[in-house]
Amino acid sequence: MTLSYSHAHQQGSGTTEVVAVLVAITEHTARVLTVDQGKLLPNGPLMPLHRSLQAGVRQWVEEQTQQPLGYLEQLYTFVDTNRRNVDGHALVYVSYLGLVQETQTQQLQSQALWRDWYDYFPWENHLEGRPSIIMDFIVPALLEWANATTDAIVQQRRRQRIGLCWGLSESFLAGNDFENCEDKDAGLDTASDNNQDNREWVAEHVLLRYEMLYEAGLIPEAPTYPPSYSANAQTRPLPENWSQLIGAPMYYDHRRVIATAISRLRAKIEYRPLIFGLMPDVFTLSQLQQSVEALSGVRLHKQNFRRLLDSQNLVMETGQSSSAQRGRPAKLYRFRHDIELQSLLMDSKLPKRK
Predict the structure, then answer these.
(1) Other C-beta atoms within 10 Å of 259: how many?
(2) b/e per residue, 37-52, with b = 16+ CB within 10 A?
(3) DSSP 3-state assignment of 167?
(4) pLDDT by residue (tens digit) across 204-244?
(5) pTM
(6) SS3 for 202-227, per residue?
(7) What is the DSSP letter of 29?
(8) Interior angle at CA 138, CA 137 and CA 144, nearest 5
């Protein structure tokens, strides 16, 4: 699989390409819609017949996936100097984020495939606790990358970035023999810690963590992959199956585009009710909480989450109950559409479970 190569679309010689990150929550799992066996996002060049960028996005999504589109917003734009159109010009890359209800597989185009977004970012899934890959492999490799420079200032800044991105205290990173440290959790922060040197795992720093792994050459998309220092490392080298452990790679910068979308969503669910664009018309409060957890990648405190919903007056009872197979049926709710969209969780944080 070649991850970095020039690409010319067969249609036209334009310099602008649109890419769509379509997100759905299915069975409490955050998923993205891909094409080309999960190696690409729906994409295509902006053509003269497109009246706008959004029109181009909608056409390519419809042609490549047949997935109906709902909420759509622009993510970001950049120039990809590694890719050229048929005339040799670098492509301008415009990405979009869409929230949809997942269409059944048999209704999609054959090339379209829904994927769990943690297939691409396994280190971001903290639903069952912190993934072992972080402290067993990622942080040691990043520390070796930080120590690889002879510039003391650069080395210190890299360590500071590692701490900020991965929720580790600076003193732990600077003062511990990481490979021989028995308690690797000692550098992680909890809300009960009063140590001001400690740092918190920030869920919305998805793009920052991906960019750091890219810069350190730890992911297949990076031009320096495989890491040049791993073969001669004085500490434990990366495992042979590292490409599988570090998440599924994608062509071009499409995994970076997904990282940007996850960062945007995780930040926005703190203050806007975007989650309701991913929910069915009626739902239980447990289903709502599990959906928010799927996006944020962390467990939430049940009672605090429900108190937060009550205080924001965002949902209303339908008067019906779910047909639970076991236990008592749960009340069904729907979103209060008369509430201003900007009101969700305004000036507050998700009630994360300690």
Answers:
(1) 25
(2) ebbbbbbbbbbeebee
(3) coil
(4) 999 999 999 999 999 998 888 865 444 444 445 678 788 78
(5) 0.84
(6) CCCCHHHHHHHHHHCCCCCCCCCCCC
(7) E
(8) 90
